[in-house]
Every structure is written in C-alpha cells, then in structure tokens.
C-alpha cells in the first residue's frame, strides 16, 4: 500500500514537472534543465507508468510530444501524428536497441539538427502549408514565414503530393552576425530560429538568416514500390529539397565506428547539432516495429553529452522572494558556455547543495540546457566546507524556517526589506494591478529613499510629487505617468485587488471562484469568517481546496492584513467586485466555454470568461463532452489535448477577438 501510494504521488509529481519543462522548452524557448536531466525524469516516469499503469494520466507526457502551439496562428490538423524520438546517451543503451531492432539491418545515421521542427505539406507539387509540430496532432500554420527561406522550393519538379519533415535552423556565423546587430539580445540559434518562424510579420521573418534541412517524407499513396529510407532521401534530393550533409547508411556493425567519427566532427559543424538520429533503413521493418504514441520504435536519438564547463564558485548569494522563499545562487568565475557568459548558477536549496557537496571555492562543472539557465552539475574539487544556508535571513536577520514539508527555507518576517520590495513589485506587475511606470528599478529607488515601503505608502506617493520630479532620471512626464497610474488603479475592482495584495493561496482563480459564489467583496469575506461554520461553507465551494480554506481564514483573522485592506479601502482602493451585468447581446447562449493557457489581451484569463458569461455563455472549469468551446492560448496543456480528442470547438485568442468584433461586443 505504502509503495503504491508513493508511486502514485511520484507519477503525479513527475507528470506535472515534465509538462512544465515541456512548456518552457517548446513554447517559451526557455528551458531550465539539461536534456539529460529531462530525460532522467522522463525515463523514471515511463518506468513507473509501466509498473503502475493504473496511476498513469491519460494525458501523460510520455504519451505525447511537447507542444509548441501559440495563439497567433491558424491551426492545422496533421495528417499523421508527428512523433518525437526516444533518447539514448551511451553506446551500450544504443546497442541494446540495435539488438532488439535487428543486427542484420541497415541503419541511417544522421545529424540531429538543433532547430525548430517543421512539416511541409506539398499538394501536387505545390507547397501549400508549412506547419509546426504543435501538439503532434495539431500544429501552427507558419507558411508565409517558412516560405521566406531561400533554399526551400515552393514547387516540386515531381509534382508529388507529399509531407516532408525537416528542421529550420541557423548557422552559428549567421546567428552571431544577426545577434550583434540586435545588441546580443538572442540567447542562441535554436531560440532565434523557433522564434523567427513564429514571428507575426513574415517580412521580419525574412530578415532572419533561416535555413532548412529535410530528413524524411510521408509519401502516402505515392509510396508504392519504395522500400527504403535511402530511396526517400534520394527522391527528396531529386526534388531539390535541401538534405542535411553527412547522412550515412551503415550496417549495425559499422554503426558505433561511424558514431565516433560523427562525434569527432561535431564541434566543427557550422550549425548546431544536439546529437545523431539513427533510423532503420527498411520501411517494411519499421512497420512491423510500429510506434508508441510518443515515438517510433524504429528510431533513436543519440545525444552527445551536454557541454560542461569548469569554473569556480566565488561566492554564494541569495534571492528572497515576496513569499520569503530564500534561493541560494552560486556566483562563479565568468565562463563562456555555449555562446554566453555565465556568471551565476542556481543552487536551489540546502538539499541540492548537500547532494552536490558545493561550497565557496569549489571547482565545479556547470552546464546549460538550451543555453539559458546554468546549473551546477558536479563538484570537481570540493570546497573547504560544504555551504550552509545561514540560519538567519541574509537581508533582515530573521530566523529562517521550513514551511510545511518544503525543502526550501523561508524568511517569515513580512517586513523583511527584500520581501517588502518584491511584494510591491508584484502588486504593480502587468498581471496584477498593472501600474504604468512602476517597475523593479523605480520601486527599488522609492524603497531606498524610504518613501514607499508598503502599499499604503504607494497610494500616498502623490504627496512627494515635487521631490519625485527632482529625482535623477524621473522628471515631470515620468512622474505624471506613475502618479496617474497609481490613481487609475483605484478603478480596478476586487477581481484584481484581492489577488494583487499577495495573500498566499489567493490568486486570480480562487478570487474568481469566490466572487462566483457571492463572496464578492472583502466585507463579505470578513462577515463569513466570523461565522462558526465558515470553514465548512468555504470547503463546500468547488475549486476551493482545504489548503485555501485554511489560508484564507488565517488571512481574515490576521491583524496586519485586516489593517492593510482597511487602509487601502480608506484611500479609495476598491475591494468590491463590480457587477458583471448581463448584456443585451447574448451570442454565447447555450454554449459552455472552458479557458486554458495565457493570453495577451486577457490577463488573467478569467477576464475572457467574464465576457463570455456576460454575453450568455456558461463557464466550465474542465473539458468534458459537455464543453462546447475551448479558448486556448500559449501554455495550454492537457485541456487542449482532451478538447481535441472530444471534438470541442477550439478557439484561439485571435479568433476570439474576431468573434467579439463580429458580434459587436465591446472589448
Ligand atoms: S526524425 C519519427 N531526424 O528532433 C521521426 N528528427 O526529438 C522523428 N530532428 O522533432 C524525427 N534532426 O525536429 C529526425 N535527422 C533528424 C532530425 C530530427 C533534428 C528533430 C526533429 C524532431 C526532434 C525529435
């Protein structure tokens, strides 16, 4: 029972974590862990799911490829599922696969190009659609952007109807040149390539030095008589489609030797490669082996180890978030790694530091996945002492504590300067009160001057108008923007003010649920908290879990929170939800809408639901056969996949805005 329980928990945690990493990699182009770390998590999940299939989520990341969908493009249903590859990291593992697959077979050995995956749909030889891999089932149509790539034929001599798979990438030298022009703001060629094919403006995409290599084709009816991958590559070549260089068709015996020569050549390649792909040459044999819903059994990626660089931990500093969480970061001797200079690497928490045995003076290996966030992978020569996070907050000296079961340490002093500053920054953020002109820099300045230490003082900042104008780097115009931004924030209602004051467990979603259940003002929440059965009443609300109930009741009894809200109300900040009066326009009547992902014009996304309900629609929090529409944006995960399976009408932000326009709904 205990083993079952822990397997269930671990499967759930891994599923969530891998999905988050997929989002960071495919949608945001900002991965935070190395490919190897990712694959370890992935393999652990796959193994656990095999052992305990009853706990596997139907939307498990092991059953699908990560999604790159974004809300700006027309969607396209792929004709056949676009699969990914299973990774191997060493020759033993690869050889095990070869033995299973066929020691007498021929294999295609190809570079694994590190760019953005693309499918080219040619109909009677005409390039009709260029589509990203998307969820593997549905992709984004990016035809106009892709057509700007010089070497890509828009029509085929053969007049064939064929789907070609390829990778869009950039040469290192082109990337460097382009990046220099833009002040070095792009992290690496992969990110720039992936971002460029998703650019809103094809004219802008045309300026990017994009290239393409193709590596496979789905011939459909035209496959008759074709028995080998080698032949497919030859057809692609005849049609003048650009094939990647160096591809070899080798016997199993030659395979490992050839891998070694590819490995030697890897660092002198003009374009980024993150490994090799090994595929069975025989198409017939491929069919007998088949595929899982994630990847074919007839191919493997062989990843070269991540680039590791040696450096030294010179110091360890801390970030203290608004919740008080303390994150240690290693300051390292500046080291160039995969094109950028690394100056720090996160050390996460004490457990992580202990596992590594890290400390000041240690010689360490650092690596980056997608060259974004560096990680300390290994300690090469140990420090004199393994680092211990101080017992006291580095900023305010309050004793640090572990909250609940977390591995992280927290500063519990809410007047800790770092916490106060970060709370103010949070309140002003776009996703919260969206106060123009007030970012990290300005808040830091006002905080240091002692003018704004809390939200109440923020609303009194206008009394310092004269001094503000005289501050270096401010001036009348800027000050006007800031002060009117603060004043304007008073127009925002409870939907915004409650989540923005940063009470733990009380974000936008919880606020929306509370309002929906008639708890649409601070006064009503206070009234409820005084009732004997407050906890039961709150618990009975769908969408409010036990942790939220506890936290909410605690906040409603907390003297400082009560005083803060009281003062804010007396300063004119609105802690009552405005009526969402029903409109005469009711185009959504009879429809049930679910919303997932993030949106440019609806932040938080509940704003979109508000419009839908005001105009006759019903909102639902999960996708089921009763859901008629799913409004989705970047970051959409399992809901999108489920909706796709159930045939729910999918609507992206652009389409939704058009719909509102068509119906004459003001936005
Ligand atoms: S074969 C079903 N061959 O790697 C076959 N993929 O991790 C799947 N990639 O999304 C792909 N070079 O975009 C294949 N020579 C190559 C490749 C290659 C790069 C990318 C591809 C895919 C990803 C899989």
Automatic annotation (TrEMBL):
Keyword DNA damage carried by entry: yes
Protein name: DNA ligase
Protein residues bound to Zn(2+): 393, 396, 411, 416
Species of provenance: Leptospira idonii
EC number in record: 6.5.1.2
Required cofactor names: Mg(2+); Mn(2+)
Cross-referenced Pfam families: BRCT, DNA_ligase_aden, DNA_ligase_ZBD, HHH_5, OB_DNA_ligase
Listed GO MF terms: DNA binding; DNA ligase (NAD+) activity; metal ion binding
């Amino acid at each position: 029972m205990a083993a079952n329980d822990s397997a269930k928990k671990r499967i759930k945690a891994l599923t969530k974590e891998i999905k988050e990493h997929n989002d960071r990699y495919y949608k945001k182009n900002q991965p935070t862990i190395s490919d190897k770390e990712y694959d370890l998590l992935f393999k652990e999940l796959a193994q656990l799911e095999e052992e305990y299939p009853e706990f596997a989520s139907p939307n498990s990341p092991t059953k699908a490829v990560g999604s790159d969908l974004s809300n700006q493009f027309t969607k396209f249903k792929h004709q056949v599922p676009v699969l990914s590859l299973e990774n191997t990291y060493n020759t033993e593992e690869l050889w095990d696969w070869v033995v299973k697959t066929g020691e007498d077979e021929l294999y295609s050995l190809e570079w694994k190009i590190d760019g953005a995956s693309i499918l080219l749909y040619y109909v009677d030889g005409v390039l009709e659609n260029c589509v990203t891999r998307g969820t593997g089932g549905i992709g984004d149509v990016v035809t106009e952007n892709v057509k700007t790539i010089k070497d890509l034929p828009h029509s085929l001599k053969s007049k064939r109807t064929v789907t070609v798979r390829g990778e869009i990438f950039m040469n290192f030298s082109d990337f460097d040149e382009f990046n220099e022009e833009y002040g070095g703001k792009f992290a690496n060629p992969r990110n720039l390539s992936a971002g460029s094919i998703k650019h809103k403006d094809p004219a802008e995409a045309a300026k990017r030095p994009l290239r393409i290599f193709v590596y496979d084709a789905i011939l459909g009816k035209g496959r008759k008589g074709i028995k080998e991958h080698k032949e497919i590559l030859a057809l692609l070549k005849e049609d003048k489609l650009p094939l990647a260089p160096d591809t070899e068709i080798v016997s199993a015996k030659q395979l490992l030797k050839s891998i070694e020569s590819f490995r030697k050549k890897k660092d002198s390649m003009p374009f980024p490669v993150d490994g090799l792909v090994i595929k069975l040459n025989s198409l017939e044999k491929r069919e007998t082996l088949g595929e899982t819903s994630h990847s074919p059994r007839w191919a493997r990626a062989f990843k070269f180890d991540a680039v590791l660089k040696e450096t030294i931990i010179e110091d360890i500093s801390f970030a203290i978030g608004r919740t008080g969480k303390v994150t240690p970061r290693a300051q390292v001797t500046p080291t160039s790694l995969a094109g950028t200079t690394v100056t720090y690497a996160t050390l996460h928490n004490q457990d992580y530091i202990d596992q590594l045995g890290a400390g000041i003076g240690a010689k360490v290996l650092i690596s980056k996945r997608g060259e974004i966030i560096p990680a300390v992978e290994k300690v090469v020569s140990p420090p004199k002492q393994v680092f211990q996070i101080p017992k006291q907050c580095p900023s305010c000296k309050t004793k640090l504590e572990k909250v609940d079961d977390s591995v992280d340490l927290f500063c519990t002093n809410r007047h800790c300067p770092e916490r106060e500053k970060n709370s103010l920054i949070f309140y002003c953020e776009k996703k919260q009160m969206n106060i123009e002109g007030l970012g990290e820099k300005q808040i830091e300045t006002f905080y240091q001057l002692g003018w704004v230490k809390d939200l109440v003082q923020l609303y009194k900042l206008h009394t310092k108008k004269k001094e503000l104008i005289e501050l270096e780097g401010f001036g009348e115009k800027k000050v006007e923007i800031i002060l009117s931004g603060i004043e304007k924030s008073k127009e925002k209602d409870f939907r915004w003010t409650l989540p923005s004051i940063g009470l733990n467990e009380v974000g936008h979603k919880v606020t929306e649920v509370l309002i929906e259940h008639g708890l649409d003002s601070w006064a009503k929440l206070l009234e409820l908290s005084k009732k004997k059965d407050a906890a039961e009443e709150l618990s009975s609300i769908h969408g409010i879990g036990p942790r939220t109930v506890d936290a909410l009741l605690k906040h409603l009894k907390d003297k400082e929170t009560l005083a803060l809200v009281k003062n804010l109300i007396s300063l004119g900040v609105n802690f009552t939800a405005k009526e969402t009066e029903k409109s005469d326009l009711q185009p959504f009547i009879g429809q049930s809408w679910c919303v997932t992902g993030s949106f440019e014009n609806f932040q938080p996304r509940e704003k979109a639901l508000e419009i839908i309900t005001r105009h006759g629609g019903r909102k639902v929090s999960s996708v089921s056969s009763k859901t008629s529409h799913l409004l989705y944006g970047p970051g959409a995960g399992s809901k999108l996949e489920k909706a796709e399976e159930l045939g729910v009408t999918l609507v992206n932000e652009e389409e939704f805005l058009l719909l509102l326009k068509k119906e004459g709904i003001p936005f």
